[in-house]
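Any chance you could type out some protein's one-letter sequence along with its backbone structure tokens so I can compare the two?
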Amino acid sequence: MPSAVRFGVNYTPSEGWFHHWLDFDLDSVRADLDSIAALGLDHIRVFPLWPYFQPNRALIRPRAVEQLVTLADAAAERGLDVNVDGLQGHLSSFDFLPAWTRTWHRRNIFTDPDVVEGEARYLRTLAAALADRPNFIGMTVGNEVNQFAAGPHPDPDRITPAQADAWLTRLLTACAEGAPGRLHLHASYDAAWYQDDQPFTPEHSARRGDLTAVHSWVFNGTAQRHGRTSVPSEHHAAYLVELSKAWADDPHRPVWLQEVGAPAPLIPPAHAAAFTEATVTHALDCPDLWGVTWWCSHDVSRDLADFPELEYGLGLLTNDRRPKDLALVLADAARGRRTTPATRGTALVVPADPAVRSRCAPGGPVFDAYFRLAADGARPTTVLDTRADDKEHLAARGITEVVTPDQVLPTPQGGTRS
């Protein structure tokens, strides 16, 4: 039987943004969750702010953990499952790292043994607090924590890919210790797929944790190069889903489109609904898609200062909890619960070497070839160059045709295969 795709939203509180943990108001949270549930969505992704929950390496605030559980219980009352991101980490251009890792206590958050053990204890504590809740999906280690490991971050904690792997293994183990049998994963922003010197690699995303997370944002050069209604912009989320499959060892590893949004001004508000419909439609055409989780639930209040302009209007709902047109589009998709698309039989070859992964980024030959194929209706997926002749691997994925980027020739219509 085909399985239903999950539809949810990244929960941004309408009052106080993520600072609401400092003045937790259950009535306000319940009203937010009512507005989310009214759209027919089935889950939320929740963000404790790490310094608020663990202000000292030896102190995980019991009251904060209780509030997280209370939020999860309120979600359950409204039919919403909950995924919890532990290490925040980075959100909407702001960094939230505890004082015991910065300035006078400056230590590498990925390699310092005391810091890593503090992180593991924190994640294990959150997971254990929720382990008996039926609506608890599992933990995400953190939100785009890879941005702390390399440029363009202004003060990165630099590590090697081997150190990134050891860190992920330790923290995913901690999550499983706290809540055995749940889905535990980690999440990187798209530098993991596109940036040559990023120590969190595509292999980490596709092989560590219980499923692969991709975060799709067209302000990465896609919309700037191609425009809001282009094939690359409207298929970018689907591209990341299919790109991730090249590195997966499991031929049917589930992929979670964990963040995707309609960022102004590249996607103007008047076009957001059309962009949402196109993005979701193409993502749903990807086999093994676990779910779609929109960024984000509610707009950021204009009472809060210093956010990038685009952050204020990314919500499905306004700051006073009114649904926008794009919310209705997502609600329609959630009601449809489309299932099990056909296998993608054409695979584009991508380099396994992470030192040249920029070939997959906007402007790179893999990126351009993929979208020429998509423009011709080929429904491509991807395969590593090291697996392109592996008949067993290709058969397991249903791949019947393998093409290289230089075989995909440009035409005025967008591309064809030779």
Notes: The chain is about 35% helix and 15% strand. The two ends are 37 Å apart (CA to CA).
